[in-house]
Design goal:
By secondary structure, this protein is α+β, with helices and mostly antiparallel strands. Helix content is 20%, strand content 38%. The strands form 2 sheets. The chain has a 6-stranded mixed sheet with strand order 4-5-6-7-8-9, sandwiched between helices. Helix 2 links the parallel strand 6 and strand 7. The chain is globular, with a radius of gyration of 15 Å. The chain starts with 13 loop residues before the first strand and ends in a 9-residue tail after the last strand.
Length: 150
């Protein structure tokens, strides 16, 4: 039984092969083995596309980046139309408590990516921040802004 998450419901596709269940990722256009974190990531992607109206073409999932010489992978990034980064999302399994370590992780990613907004979620709890890179500060928000076509 899959964990009910604090996101709107969406139409998903499953596939089962070799005793492993996969879920279709509309961004990567392929089936991904269904782990608890992937369940959260897929809900978040659909929330960003349907509720927040971000175009699929501006969303990127699970890409590698180098931070202090180490290879890391971000969960979700939303780009602005000029190629700058609007939002970074860090997804955790619903079984993982979001704590300072999670915020430190996304903050390290943002040193390399310079996003305007950050989102951390375990599917049950969501936290949103707006970054002020000039003042080297952030402020928590109730939600992230909807997509605005520029």
């Amino acid at each position: 039984m899959l964990q009910e998450l604090n996101f709107p419901k969406f139409e998903y596709r499953f596939k089962s092969t070799e005793n492993k269940v996969s879920i279709f990722d509309v961004i990567r256009k392929k089936f991904i083995i269904l782990q608890p974190e992937e369940w959260v990531r897929q809900h978040c992607v659909h929330y960003l596309m349907t509720t927040k109206q971000y175009p699929k073409s501006l969303i990127n999932v699970e890409k590698e980046l180098i931070i202090n010489g180490l290879k890391k992978r971000y969960d979700i990034v939303i780009f602005n139309s000029d190629g700058s980064i609007h939002l970074i999302v860090e997804c955790k399994s619903h079984t993982i408590q979001i704590d300072q370590t999670t915020f430190d992780q996304i903050a390290r990613y943002n040193l390399a990516l310079n996003a305007s907004f950050l989102m951390v979620t375990n599917g049950l709890n969501h936290y949103y921040c707006e970054m002020d890179m000039d003042a080297e500060r952030f402020s928590f928000l109730k939600d992230i802004p909807n997509y605005i076509k520029k």
